[in-house]
Amino acid sequence: MEIFAGLAAVLTDPILIFYVLLAAVVGMVVGAIPGLTASAAIAMLLPITFYMEPLAALAFLYVIGKSGRYGGSIAAILFNTPGTAASAATQLDGYPLSRRGLSSKAMKVATISSVIGDFTGEVLLIVGVGLIAAIALKLGPPELFAVYFAAFVVIGSVIGKSILKGLASAALGVLIQMIGLDPISSEERFTFGNFDLTNGISLVPLMIGIFVLGEVFAQLEVRGKKTEIVDEPGTADSRARNRLTWAEYKPCLPHVVRSSFIGAFIGMLPGLGSAIAAFVAYGEGKRRAKNPEEWGKGALEGVAAPEAANNAVSGPSMAPLLTLGIPGSTIGAILVGVFLIHGIQIGPTLFLTSKELVYSLFAAGLLGIVFYGLIGYYGASFVGRFILKIPTDVLYPVIFLTAFVAAYSSRGNLFDVYVMVAAGFGGWVMRKLDFNPAAFVISFVLAGGAEEAFRQSLLLSDDGALIFITRPVALGFILLGIGAVFFRARSLNR
Amino acid sequence: MISARVNSATVVGGALALFGATAIAASFGINPDPDGGWGARTFPLVGSGALLLLGLLEARKGLGAGAATTRQTTNSLPSVLALLLLSLAYVWVISKLGYLIGTGLAAPLALWLFSIRNPFGMVAAAIVCPAVYHAVFFIGLGVFPPLGEWFDLLDVIQGY
Which of B50, B114, B143 is nearest residue A409 as measured by Cβ atoms? Predict the structure, then answer.
């Protein structure tokens, strides 16, 4: 019932509706620009949202994340370059369709499938999040620490090419979080006598560095590369050819429904994210398809399945963030910054203290899906042609300058800008060496809460660290983490 | 031959292990709790220890691989380093000469690094970028601007 109150709150606030609409457009455009991701846009815009109302700020960034995931499909279909990692699976069938002059049809299928997937994920979130929060409220510090432990290990080991480098990325994130004063004893840690370091490393400049400046460094390597389009979707002939009929979309529906549930399930697991969901859904779709030989050569179902899955991740990935304070994705990690800045404590108590805000956020998410669905269905070709007109050699210097002023604005401190530069270069090096920047950032966000839970557990315990083994739920999560590494190692060795 | 075993995994693993070992040493510099407990040291030590272990495993993997892997060369490294240098110089200039002058200098240089050679465009960027960012962030959003230690254009234009 809370969701209806949330919808009423959102739909009666014209300013909020404007922000959601703006976010739908911004996310779609950013997602469609090859190289730029929704995470980068959110990190860059984060300091601006400090000056907005909490709900408007959260809704704005949340919808950018949703719309950005969808926007990646435009670049994948039109330019043969996935706008985001998640849309790489869409490219497999989207671009062949584009080569056959059916880019608009492919984009319509992507739009409808994304909307259905996202809507399914959001509804599952709305229905299930209260239940998860109620269970989370019963968890004590040992269980909570075990959940954190499992999250560290899963995030570090499951994504990326190398388990060792993924786990090392997570360990680095933990170490960087330790810089500053110990929150309990106020002892200085890793400050090396530097006063600026006593305040610790701030989340916002770190993320702007990794996701925005790091991308500018990466774009230097591909500067001058022209984006090409094989199908001009705006002509009259093309419009007639690209009309999507119910008979054409009907075979996609079973794939969309299945993929939506695959995406929603993967979304709930911290760290896995849209790209994995899209490829799992694509693989499963092809396996069950009546026409598997057409997949990869331009099957509409091959566009529908990954798009539904990658957008279905969006809602459920908020569940661990809102109920346990564990961000399931990089976008979730960035949203932690918004909650913190507005003084909102995330975790199970969020549903006791800020229930209205949470459900209004979900309602804004639903409205955002409607907006990007409508804009995408009727305007994706226009967005594609608009992207072609953006000179990337000018765009990235502008993003470079924006990153600096955004990093400074978060706390009005030039030290943060130095942190952003270091994180940007570090992020670029990490990508070059196949480390995992997402695991680094998520671990950075998790480390504070994990340490608090760990130390509280030891205070509760008469047997020291054995408390994590004697409590069954805690032991279960610890075994889950160890099991994830074991299975991942086995799958890599095959 | 030892040189044949020095591949990227060995180097990366060695660097991680060194970083981890240094962090362990630094962790022991953190004062223990008044009751002698490891409280504030525990997490830094666990993180450092994990990094050392993972670094050693990565280096071992590299040594086990035997022959050196193909070295990844990139033609863009000088450009990336130039952008890093520009980034550091930009922050330093802001701290000494203020945001407007710093951005006025950094904007055309950033465009130049991205292969823009149009002199009119670079001059326009030097003027428009500082003005737009100043208007949006320091006037519009009310963020207090970073003032130059030696000189600041805001003193001359009276804060506008």
Answer: B143
